């Protein structure tokens, strides 16, 4: 995800999964964290700006919450 974030400075980067919401939203939320969005706000940020149903499971939300610590 760090690579995607860094590449996005100079080129288009696409993030996708089968349904386009759960794993895609999780990746986008993690990239938002890398860009400075607080981890506690990243899921809401992605839901507001990408898809209101993004980051579908509790496990995905936990992953985003813990992402900043890695």
Automatic annotation (TrEMBL):
Keywords linked to the UniProt accession: Hydrolase
Top-level lineage group: Bacteria
Keyword set includes Protease: no
GO molecular function: phosphatase activity
SUPFAM superfamilies noted in UniProt: (Phosphotyrosine protein) phosphatases II (SSF52799)
Pfam families assigned to the protein according to its UniProt record, in alphabetical order: PTP-SAK
Chain ranges of the Tyrosine specific protein phosphatases domain: 1-49
The protein's name: Tyrosine specific protein phosphatases domain-containing protein
Taxonomic classification: Bacteria, Bacillati, Actinomycetota, Actinomycetes, Mycobacteriales
